[in-house]
Amino acid sequence: MRPIPPTCIGRFAPSPTGALHFGSLVAAVGSLLDARARGGRWLLRIEDVDTPRAVPGAADRIIATLAGLGFEWDGEIVWQSQRSEAYRAALDSLIASGFAYPCACTRRELADAPLARDGSRRYPGTCRTGLAAGRGARAWRVRAEGLIRFDDLVQGPQSIDLAADAGDYVVLRADGLFAYQLAVVVDDLAAGVTHIVRGADLLDSTARQIHLQGLLGAPTPTYAHLPLATNAAGEKLSKQTLARAIDDTPAPLALLAALRFLGQAPPAGLELAPLARVWAWAHAHWSIEAVPRCRQAVAQGFF
After folding, report:
1. Residue 195 domain-assigned?
2. What are 87-108's pLDDT values in tens digits?
3. What three-state secondary structure class fits 103?
4. Which residues form the domain of 112?
5. Burial 30-68 (b: 16+ CB within 10 A, else e)
6. Cα–Cα–Cα angle for 284, 187, 149, nearest 5°?
7. Could you give the number of structural domains in the chain?
């Protein structure tokens, strides 16, 4: 008798560009608790497909920090840097189906192209009908077409005109690296991910990912985009904005801060409780409905 697969598979997928900060902790907490509340599995993936941006030792530090905070993931950790063959197979499929096409445009040419009517720099479609004589492919793009609709569990109903919003998007970069949009869709499909809970900074990427899922014959997961943690200036917490490493904060206090940021209401006194008790309360009381419906919020004390 075959084992019954879990009805929910969630995941946390940090990029190893620095130490784990409060914004990443919020995404980790939300994704773990939501998956467990649905009786599901929770996976850990290191998104190091953009190898030039990866900081040596950062991935190991992130993994150690998560373990020290009491996170427990299911199965082996997946490393995007080891999955190039899977991404190549997906790209070949897109090319064979006519969904992807070669692009010869340089960064300078794209920067010098006229702005779209809304003032954005969407790809102008220069190579959509074929490469100009004497030009070779530098990157590969997917034809962006259609209206993408989905109901986000936190941010509500979303409707995106893919061509107007993003334009034809890159799936293989000019430097030979596979683009994030392709890698994340291939990885989620391979892992059977059903629920994606992550920061609202990635909400704008979701339409492209749903579009790719359709082209590759993949099911579309349920999405929930949590408020993005920012500093007082409204900047996303990151290495670039000098966000403080979360492992500088006692684990119970860090977890409680993330829960409060996510609209949960842990009782007074848990600050003095051991980490296991804080986790026990979080698992027993998690509510995705309580998460604030906003794109960003200031993370007091964590920048």
Report:
1. no
2. 999 999 999 999 999 999 998 8
3. strand
4. 84-181
5. bbbbbbbbbebbbbbbbbbbbeeebeeebbebbbebbee
6. 75
7. 2
